[in-house]
Fold:
Amino acid sequence: MFKILVVDDEEKIREVISEYAEFEGNTVVQARDGMEAINLCRKEDFDVIIMDIMMPKLDGFSAYKEIRKMKDIPVLMLSARGEEYDKLFGFEIGIDDYVVKPFSPKEVMARLNVIVSRNSGKKIDPKLKFNGLEINIAGRNVCVDGVEIEMTPKEYDLLFYLVKNKNVALSREQILNEVWGYDFFGDDRTVDTHIKMIRNSLGKYRDYIVTLRGFGYKFEYRE
Structure:
């Protein structure tokens, strides 16, 4: 099954989630705050993270941004707050799903299974090269002819999603659901805007991202 990192400053919540997860055959490691979660991710690999937002020492958003610099691990965020801003910000930095407290442990596990299944089919080499375009998914960096380029977290997420599905036609709706999440309130113009920014960053390799008129996009590369 899965190896899960549960991060929450409330011991009772950690224990409830751990009990349900272990009952389903998963392995669970617990952390009390964001700093402990970062240190654990440096030492161990996890299939998925369940992380609270409001924690002492380091909040969940900040902790996850640091973890993403090291490893590409999907995350389900927990929060006592249900403000739209929190959800939008979370999806902007790359979280996979969001649950508001109080929650049903069964719902958390159901969402967790979907997240892991969605990501398990995308396991590919973390370092890829397309002529002079080098993409390091694990390290979250992109180089054009040996020069590293800077992009926003969501631009990285979008490019990596396209590359993981190389030569596959992806609709704008698919892209929004997978990269921004099902709870995103924007429209498909968001995808178009981010594609434009990525193409500008890729320079002469911009044509690897092909527009499928009236449908969506694909990353096209033939050996």
Notes: Residues 80 and 101 are 5 Å apart (CA to CA). The first helix runs from residue 11 to 23. DSSP finds eight helices and twelve strands in the chain. The chain has two domains: 3-120, 127-219.
